[in-house]
Amino acid sequence: MKSDLEIAREAQLKPIDAIAAGLGIEESELEPFGRHKAKVKLDIINRLAQKKRGKYILMTAVTPTPFGEGKTLSTVGLSLGLNRIGRKAVCTVRQPSMGPVFGLKGGAAGGGYSQVVPMEDFNLHLTGDFHSVAAANNLLAAHADTSILLKNPLEIDPFTLKLRRVVDINDRALRRVVTGCGGRRNGIPRETGFDIASASEVMAILGLSKGYADMRARLGRIVVGRSRGREWIDAEKLGTAGAMAVILKQALMPTLMQTLEGTGALVHTGPFANIAHGNSSIVADEIALRIADYVVTEAGFGADMGAEKFFNIKCRVSGRTPDVAVIVATVRALKVHGGNIAVRAGLPLDPALTKEDLSLLKKGMPNLAKMIEIVHLHGVPAVVAVNRFPTDTDSEVELIRDTALELGADNAVISDVHARGGDGGIEFAEAVVETLEKPARFQHLYPLDLSLKEKVEILATRIYGAERVKFYDEVLRKMDRFTERDYGKMPICMAKTQYSLSHDPALKNRPEGYVFTVKDMTAAAGAGFIVPMAGDIMLMPGLTAKPALLQMDLTEEGEVVGLF
Asked: Do the strands 553-554 and 411-415 form a parallel or antiparallel pair, or are they unpaired?
């Protein structure tokens, strides 16, 4: 089969204004970026305020391998399949971070014949939103450091500064750094570090804001540190929030693109449901729900990660709840869980993952069972979609489908959208439409008026399968301080490994009876959630010994090669 890039380059793309017109987006509501992508102005939300909302479909997955199991592929492919059966559908997908693009995973525009195009634009810079997020975040950090150095009018204690600078590249050398070296003119020396841009509170705010006023208010609530008198100092008090909002004005508008089959795709905000909320933006979904009858939106990693945060963070803010959730499962991932097989960067896949082994596959089914349980715990019907790989046998994919139904899934289907695009998504789409006839009785996992400790314990025991939670002493002290600050009623945005239901990536399948460990906790007051840090999770990924960037180059004609 041709590479994703070769397939993408063969596509006959439509002008973006033609894509927009087909969706009922007016010319005045577009800000074009070239011929094949455009920002969509938020005015459209008000213009179509009275229009009936489309069906809301969430895409999630089993616990993945480091290579991903095809959620974006399935999100795009399902929207293609829905359009093939005569349903007006669009997808809302997250913009890839250039960290994974140049790292292990490579591009994230979907794959095969279910892609968002132009693929190079999608994976590299796009319309500059990530740069705007980094600039706004780093402006706040720079202003805080400068204010302390130049007379410190707010009497900020430099050793309470919590805001870290961000970049959109995996760079392990920046995880812990000392700034302010080289003399008094360069600032006060202190230990800090960098995070990846997608993990920043500014990115979370961009994803959860419902408009410009909401974004501006949220930016003002970002906590920078505390004064020597123990007063909390935020971006509003520092006077930086207005300038940050100016930087992010254009970034708040989602980007309209198209699929290989000429259907609409709205692209907005960043990935990383392990260290962020990992969902597409509220405004992208709001626009999509007004211009289409079916909207497929993606949530990062497994149902314990992005989907749980979708249910308990995003749905609380947006007021929108899903009609159905799709759980993507693969033979590869379930075999990894069944045999606790290591998948290492730069090394060939274990042969056990590419040859038929029904016994090994059956052993990994408890992970799928847990994901179905998590979706049902929130009152949402669950469809299991088996994303087929070329090495999968008929017996293997049918085993997953049949077992999913035995485990209580409301429907199960085999998806072949990678190889066949919309044609391979027709049965997939029909299964989802059939399941949409079942009522969703949505409910949140926990009420917000519980204590922070209780909310973390509910997450750990009911979602992650832990027996109990161990909180480090500093975490207990922080929870008391956050409660005093009126942050106690915020939802939880857990930062933990994506490779296990637990906090330990070595615990595969469906671990139970273990102790879930929370080592640190931060408050994202502007985003509106609390972030516990579980296990050894870090907010800055690192490159591998053989990253994807080694395959990339530019020809003399200016064409990109080696991009996935």
From this structure: unpaired
pLDDT tens track for 119-149 = 889 999 899 999 999 999 999 999 999 999 9
Q: What is the DSSP letter of 250?
A: T
Taking the C-alpha atoms of residue 281 and residue 270, their distance in angstroms, rounded to an integer, is 9
Q: Is 512 exposed, middle or buried (0-12, 13-18, 19+ CB in 10 A)?
A: middle
Cβ proximity of 126 and 37 under 8 Å: yes
In the chain, how long is the greatest CA-to-CA distance? 71
Helices (H), 292-364: 308-309, 315-318, 331-339, 358-363
Cis peptide before 64 (omega within 30 of 0): no
CB-based contacts of 407: which residues, under 8 Å, 6+ apart?
Answer: 365, 368, 369, 372
Give the distance from CA 509 to its chain's centroid.
22
For residue 39, give Cα distances in angstroms to 27, 128, 299, 473. Answer: 11, 11, 22, 46
**Cα 25–26–29 angle (5° rounding)?**
90
* DSSP state letters, 486-508: T-TTSPB--B--SSSSSS-TT--
Q: pLDDT per residue over 416-451, tens digit each?
A: 999 999 999 999 999 999 999 999 999 999 999 999
Show the beta-strand stretches assigned E in 392-525: 411-415, 468-471, 515-524
Give percent above pLDDT 90 in the chain.
Answer: 84
Lowest mean pLDDT among 266-275, 402-411, 508-517: 266-275
Tokens of 548: 């994807």
Measured between its terminal Cα atoms, the distance across the chain in Å is 13
And the tokens for 555? 């020809």
DSSP 75: H
Taking only the tens place, the pLDDT of each residue in 365-379 is 999 999 999 999 999
Q: Give the pLDDT of residue 420.
A: 96
Structure tokens at 173: 């050398």
Q: Which two tokens stand for residue 481?
A: 């301080």
Residue 431 in 3-state DSSP?
A: helix
Contacts 24+ apart (CB under 8 A), 346-349: 346/104, 346/544, 346/545, 346/546
**DSSP strands (E only) in 94-186:** 110-111, 114-117, 165-167, 177-179
Q: Which domains does the chain have, with CATH numbers?
A: 4-126+252-434 (3.40.50.300), 129-248 (3.30.1510.10), 452-534 (3.10.410.10)
CB 377 within 8 A of CB 445: yes
How would residue 543 be classed by pLDDT, with cut points 50, 70 and 90?
confident
CA-derived radius of gyration, the chain: 23
Q: How far apart are CA 159 and CA 485, in angstroms?
A: 19
What whole-number distance in Å separates Cα of residue 254 and Cα of residue 126?
11
The amino acid sitting at 278 is G
Task: Please report, rounded to a whole number, the percentage of residues in the chain having pLDDT higher than 70.
Answer: 99
